[in-house]
Amino acid sequence: MKKADGFTMIETITAFSLLLMAIMSVLPLYMDIRLSLKYLHMEQKVITRLHDEFHDYIHSETLHSFPHTYDIGTTVTFSIVYEDQWTKGCAKWKDQKNSYKEFCLYAE
């Protein structure tokens, strides 16, 4: 009888299990990266909106009442206050990990 040169069932199962282990170890990393991108995108939207609000406040003749609350995928509170010679504009929001974030801009 001749020797068969193909894969045996054991070799196929071993190769498949190694491939499955590699996929299962990379999948959580991929999901974490996707979630981090989502957090960064939300933060970018908040900072852009804060910049626009701050710019409008500084360059407008009329005073707006603060704090403002907006819904940009999450509830964001914008506040603008005067501190010494600086004008401080801050945005506060709760991210998807339920931790509070704050970002502030300053102008003279």
The whole-number mean of residue pLDDT values reads: 86
**Broad structural category:** alpha+beta
Sheet of most strands: 4 strands, antiparallel
Order of helix and strand elements from N to C terminus: HEEEE
Helix content: 40-55%
Terminal CA distance reads 91 Å
Shape: rod-shaped
State the low-pLDDT regions, or none.
Answer: none
Strand order of the largest sheet: 1-2-3-4
Number of strands: 4
Oligomer category: single chain
As for the number of domains, it is: 1
Strand content: 25-35%
Instruction: State the helix count.
Output: 1
Query: How big is the Rg?
Result: 26 Å
Compose a concise summary of this entry.
The protein is of the alpha+beta class and 108 residues long. The protein contains 1 helix and 4 strands.
